[in-house]
């Protein structure tokens, strides 16, 4: 999937803005398993495995149908209307509800960007030693420069090999003395512990599995890939594009969820089995030691840097598009300039917050974890708005007849709301 356009001549190019900047013209998109499993996801899955063993494997397996359903709904809304989720929500909901949802989404994305910037600093320290705040600032600025000057697909072709380090978790699971029947059973049979720690972790896993930015990104990707004349039409060309998107979503999501499952299983087989907690990056690296030996910190460092650089453009791009769409109804090239500047502002806020947290000596693993918790808490209202939007014929056309998609979306929404309510109840009433 191409997420960039090359240099083009047009009004924005004459204004001095990089018309090939992927965030201004194309919008965010989902590019790989690594993008869906950014450093926040890697640390959250590792923490879940270290603390609860196999008890949360079921989240990766059972969330798959609903995760696919939400992405397909988001894509169909974009195909039917030719607009992203933010513009559609703006048209169909009250102003107060809409702005509250957008604000929560922006806050979650900025904090997620900050966490990924911290992760790049930690990854660089694992590789070369040195100052985490300095490395975080350098890699944050590098990410802005790449997004602004280099077509995303061009540097993603290189960075994806760094993200391949994630498959080391699969190797750890395969060579460890694991009970495969037990692992398979726990992947489909939920085991729930009624405690604050359990439900907070559940929200974190939910936030990194069905993250809000993923849904906004899916809609923008559909607009990017669909021919302009097919938008809002039910012709054969539009249907072919939707079928292609459906296949890509099915494959990409199973790869993403499987990677999360293996990260969790590897942490369970190493840290949890030894009764060892996960308190810092070196503890996280020890999960890979059965496979990588003394090079485990280097493998984790490369994975953190690679996945962060791949995930930051969709995170910042989806936030920039949401921010601009919340106050501007313009589409196409007319949106390029404000989205480009919004991208820089969002990235600058995230980098500043990330560097500030490292200077305040906030433990990076905790920052990444709480970023996922914030995403999980933010996901519920976004999911509610999206599933209600999927029932409006003016927004989704004939999709309202597809009860299976709506049922899967409602199931995930009710579950996310129940997890949020259970965490609140355990925290305040026990």
TrEMBL record:
GO biological process: iron ion transmembrane transport
Residue ranges of coiled coil: none
Predominant subcellular localization, coarse grouping: membrane
Bilayer-crossing regions: 56-75, 96-120, 126-146, 158-176, 196-216, 250-275, 295-317, 338-362, 368-391, 403-422
Subcellular locations according to the entry: Membrane
Pfam assignment, any one: Nramp
Single Gene Ontology MF annotation: cadmium ion transmembrane transporter activity
Membrane topology: Multi-pass membrane protein
Alphabetically ordered keywords of this record: Membrane, Symport, Transmembrane, Transmembrane helix, Transport
KW Transmembrane (keyword) present: yes
GO terms under cellular component: plasma membrane
UniProt-listed InterPro entries: NRAMP_fam (IPR001046)
Cited PANTHER family: NATURAL RESISTANCE-ASSOCIATED MACROPHAGE PROTEIN 2 (PTHR11706:SF33), SOLUTE CARRIER PROTEIN FAMILY 11 MEMBER (PTHR11706)
Name of the protein: Divalent metal cation transporter
Taxonomic placement: Bacteria, Pseudomonadati, Pseudomonadota, Betaproteobacteria, Burkholderiales
